[in-house]
Amino acid sequence: MNVAPKTTQKRMTKRVISVFWAHSARYVLTLFFILLFVVVLMGFQVLSPILYKELIDIAVSAKSPTPAVLNTLLGVLSLIALVKFGSWISRRTRGILMVRFQTRVMADLARTAFEGLLRHSYGFFSDNFAGTLVRRVNKFVNAFESIADTLVFSLIPSILIIIGSLYVLAQRDVLLAGSLFIGALAFFGFSIVAVTWKQKYEVIRNERDSEATGLIADAVGNATTIKLFSGYAHEFALFRRSNEILRRARVFAWGIHEGIAAVQSGILYATEIGVLFLALSLWQKGILTVGDFVLIQLYLVAIFERIMDFENTLKKLYIAFADGSEMVEVLDAPYEIADAPGAKALSVGTANITFKNVTFAFHETRTVLDNLSLNIAPGEKVALVGSSGAGKTTITRLLLRFHDIDAGVIAIDGQDISKVTLESLWESVALVPQEPVLFHRTLKENILYGRRDASDAEVIEAARRAHCHEFISGLPQGYDTYVGERGVKLSGGERQRVAIARALLKNAPILILDEATSSLDSESEMLIQDALHELMQAKTVIAIAHRLSTIKEMDRIIVIENGTIAAEGSHDVLIGQNGIYRKLWDIQAGKFV
Description:
This protein has about 600 residues and is an alpha/beta fold. It folds into four domains: about 1-170 and about 315-335, ABC transporter transmembrane region fold; about 175-285; about 345-430 and about 510-593, Rossmann fold (3-Layer(aba) Sandwich); about 435-505, P-loop containing nucleotide triphosphate hydrolases (Rossmann fold, 3-Layer(aba) Sandwich), CATH 3.40.50. It is built from 19 helices and ten strands. It has helices spanning about 5-25, 30-60, 65-120, 120-125, 130-170, 175-220, 225-230, 230-285, 290-305, 310-330, 390-400, 420-425, 445-450, 455-465, 470-475, 490-505, 520-535, 570-575, 580-590, and strands at about 355-360, 365-375, 380-385, 405-410, 415, 430, 510-515, 540-545, 555-560, 565-570. Strands 6-7-8-3-9-10 form a six-stranded mixed beta sheet. Strand 4 (about 405-410) and strand 5 (about 415) form a beta hairpin. Helix 2 runs antiparallel to helix 9 (about 290-305), helix 5 runs antiparallel to helix 9 (about 290-305) and helix 8 (about 230-285) packs antiparallel against helix 9. The two termini are about 60 Å apart.
């Protein structure tokens, strides 16, 4: 395997540990008591076989069950009962403390992940699937739970009980403890090497599993196409081939697992027989008693029960660290767009917008805006038109600072937007997008997002002005109606009007309309046009539209082509120039063949 991936994996594991510890350290006292009760519990479990040894030795050495012998045995039994009660108390206390500790740390981790994720730039969310990011957050939180459980309930107790057992056996005879130590060392050494070696084959099996699952999902999603193009035989053949490859990968990976398990069992059985053989020799010499055999066997059972699960313990840790590293990568990734050092809040007075010699390229490969200069006067309503990819939407995204420009300056009332806080910039601009996305919350909550401290009366007034009060009033639950994920329970026109109501409530001095009336029926367009007329009052407006009939009344129309201003003026002026605007108008008017 390449050295770089290993190095990266080790580095990410360290980062996951660092992040988890930083959150756990806030509750260090609780963590201390958890570890204390783990030690106490394992102490009781190490002590228990000693008492059973005493019980057996007393019973075997007694010539008859006299009252004195019986009282002695009952005394030992009472101690055993106290140890069992102490174990019960320790286990329950540990459990209660773990509930308190884990739930708090998991909540803190979820908050860190959520806040760190949302602060990433527009470009970050454009490059990543929402579902994938949600899964990363959940896996990150669950990874901590898995690691904490593995350490507290498995790994640390196993280490303690092995150390405790070896110490007690060493008091009986050093060779006895030494033979058990060598056996345990051989088991752990082999398991670590074998599990690490096996991991690459597990990765291959998972990849084949993902391929087969993806093939099923692809076929189910295209079931109609398969029927229409008589694709049954073709798809069945594809799946049989993929399924057979998966079967072979499973046979190999699971065969390795069985081979490893066989060697592990062999080491444990050999250790057990070797320790008992040595115990027989020591018994023959009078060093050990019959009770010692009970002591040894109880320790062997306790140790073997724990270390037999060692492979699964390592596997859980591997998976947990891998899951945690996915979100840590997101948390460690620098924010593409962030407040400049010493950034001040934007103060908007007249809402004059200036683009001066602005150049912008995506990934340094495609220049979208080339030395563009544009001034939008206070209160002016400007329309941006042009063919797809000309740079219209990019202009509005740069104004919102979703991306940083490569050269030039964008200013609002003379204030460079790269030197003001992002929150104050966004607070000063309202956007009505082409496809409004609503929260899966109530209509009231979605409108209130424009100004979350608004009263119910202000919400209703904004809804009236946006022409959505009419359809909201007709719903059984009115403003308390949930709109579904991304607003799917509403039509396109209804979502658009809710977005306009939200913008009306925000009442920002700058308004951006991005294809706000596209893909709507005539009735919805008429209502939205009226709502937009209300929304644009006393604001500086930038509107993007492909449907040129919707922007005839704007103060100025600016034609963007290849990242520069190709023409500007009123509708009548641009029509008379026989340029790009006239060509676009003729196409939409049906005059272009």
